[in-house]
Write a structure and sequence with these properties.
The complex is a heterodimer. Chain A has a domain at about 1-35. Chain A has one helix and no strands. The model of chain A is unreliable at about 40-75 (pLDDT under 50). By secondary structure, chain A is mainly alpha-helical. Chain B has two domains: about 55-180, Sufe protein. Chain: A, CATH 3.90.1010.10; about 190-395, no CATH class. Chain B is built from 15 helices and five strands. Chain B has helices spanning about 1-55, 120-130, 145-150, 155-180, 195-210, 215-235, 240-250, 260-275, 280-285, 285-300, 310-330, 340-345, 350-365, 370-375, 380-395; strands at about 60-65, 70-75, 80-90, 95-100, 110-115. Chain B has a five-stranded antiparallel β-sheet. In chain B, a hairpin with a 7-residue loop joins strand 2 and strand 3. The mean pLDDT of chain B is about 85.
């Protein structure tokens, strides 16, 4: 009786292991996507930006954060 | 005899209480989904303006707003004023927003993905294959949209097309601002193509097999499964994914002229599900379902009856729910997709997805459709819709409807 039960028990353990591993992998994929979302270009070679110092008072700096020109409604087209 | 009656009454009350719990959980889920959708929408608006400074930091550049989605850019080394323009187009999962830098002659110098909701592995594929580099040095009116056809990345056509279209839109804006002539490329993509016709045919065949008097149910099912696997899977590479569902939930409805296939797939499935309570897609022509069935046939797979099945089903539901919530919170439909369809049919995906695919493929040889039974996020969503259908019918007719 025990000899018959043993393979069934082993099969159950293996199946549970596979399911658990699958869930872990799916969860890890979710986490990986979340952590890379902020910068999709981060894997690319860095873009060369000129290292410059700006002449003071040459032009008035206006922060994009303060501007309201990024019009959301424009994208509703 | 009394024992049997007692046992059956006990089981009945357990099922009843379980069903009640499920219904309350479903209602709570609906509420949380609505809150997540709203929060995500608000977050998106506030984070968008911050990103431009990540590309052009204040310490190196001076940016002056010039017009709607147009900025003037200055550095000390380059005394000339450069132009920045933003354009947006609909991608596979949602909007793709591009920031384009032009020189004085309106030649493209730089292209930035401002924001995109595409599935990360597909977006990485496009970025890694340097599709964006092909735009550099091109004139603003250089037929930019055609670059998606000539230099586009195989397997990520929609994303490439969206990038090209958004760049063309940005060029149109900058041309208008500077007073240069501009003629947008005409859109000649056919509305109804072969894949739409095949999809309609598959829906029709799946409904025919439901007819009680139809004799060739088994053969027809294998025919639809084979068509789903080969055509929807390998040829067109467009199985139903969580990204598609997230996109529709968030209101990122793709352009119907170019994505009619998706409309037929989602609306057709929803229509049949709501009217008949049956799920034609998963059972009849889901490419990955067919893939597992074929493997199961080769390995003589059997369905498994785990004692802990209920626990695994709830894990499947929880994972799908978390994925949808994350997508809504980040307002990004493709962010939380963990399906292995891209890895299976387009050979696109992360290493983790390929390992998961390998595991599922091996398991499918011995167990019948393990992905569908325990991992697929589409099934819990269908069950969720079905639960609301059943409850609505109960309220409508005042009778108890069996969940199919």
């Amino acid at each position: 009786m025990d000899r018959k039960k043993a393979p069934a028990k082993l099969k159950g353990i293996v199946l549970h292991g596979i399911l658990l591993a699958s869930f872990l992998l799916a969860g890890m994929e979710l986490y990986r996507n979340l952590t890379t979302r902020e910068n999709p270009q981060k894997d690319l070679p860095a873009q060369k930006s000129p290292a410059v110092t700006l002449k003071e008072d040459s032009i008035k700096t206006e922060s994009i954060q303060d501007s309201t020109l990024w019009d959301q409604t424009e994208f509703m087209e | 005899m009394e024992n049997i009656i007692g046992e059956s009454e006990k089981n009945g009350s357990v099922i009843k209480s379980r069903s009640k719990t499920e219904w309350y959980l479903a209602l709570a889920t609906l509420l949380i989904l609505a809150v997540a959708w709203w929060t995500g929408k608000e977050n998106r608006a506030s984070t968008q303006s911050q990103k431009i400074e990540a590309f052009y930091p204040d310490s190196l550049y001076r940016i002056m707003p010039a017009d709607q989605n147009i900025w003037l850019l200055q550095t000390q080394r380059q005394q000339d004023t450069l132009f920045l323009a933003a354009g947006k187009a609909k991608g596979y999962a949602g909007p793709v927003k591009i920031l384009v830098q032009y020189n004085q002659e309106l030649k493209i110098q730089q292209l930035h993905i401002w924001s995109a909701s595409e599935t990360p592995s597909y977006l990485s594929k496009v970025l890694n294959q340097e599709f964006i580099q092909t735009f550099k040095g091109k004139d603003y009116d250089d037929g930019l949209k055609k670059l998606a056809q000539t230099d586009g990345v195989t397997g990520a056509t929609t994303t490439c097309r969206a990038i090209a279209k958004a760049t063309e839109k940005a060029s149109g804006k900058i041309a208008q601002y500077t007073g240069h002539p501009f003629k947008a490329t005409r859109n000649n993509i056919p509305v109804m193509g072969s894949k739409e016709i095949i999809l309609l045919l598959l829906f029709t065949l799946s409904m025919i097999t439901r007819l009680p008097r139809f004799r060739y149910k088994k053969q027809t099912r294998w025919l639809t499964l084979a068509a789903g696997l080969i055509l929807l899977g390998f040829v067109y590479g467009q199985p139903l994914t969580l990204t598609n569902i997230n996109s529709f939930l968030m209101g990122f409805w793709p352009q119907w002229q170019t994505q009619l296939y998706l409309y037929i797939l989602i609306l057709g499935m929803l229509l049949i599900l709501l009217t008949t309570g049956k799920n034609p897609y998963c059972h009849h022509f889901c490419p990955f379902g067919a893939f597992q069935e074929v493997l199961g046939l080769l390995g003589k797979a059997r369905p498994i009856h785990l004692k802990t099945r209920y626990l695994w089903i709830w894990l499947q539901r929880a994972l799908a729910w978390i994925a949808v919530i994350i997508a809504l919170l980040t307002h990004n439909p493709g962010i939380s997709d963990y399906v292995v369809f891209g890895a299976a049919f387009q050979f696109t995906g992360s290493n983790l997805l390929f390992i998961l695919l390998g595991l599922i493929t091996a398991t499918s040889l011995f167990i019948k459709k393990p992905w569908c039974s325990y991992l697929c996020p589409i099934r819990p969503i269908i069950d969720y819709i079905r639960l609301f259908r059943t409850k609505t019918l109960q309220l409508w007719t005042g009778r108890k409807h069996q969940q199919s």
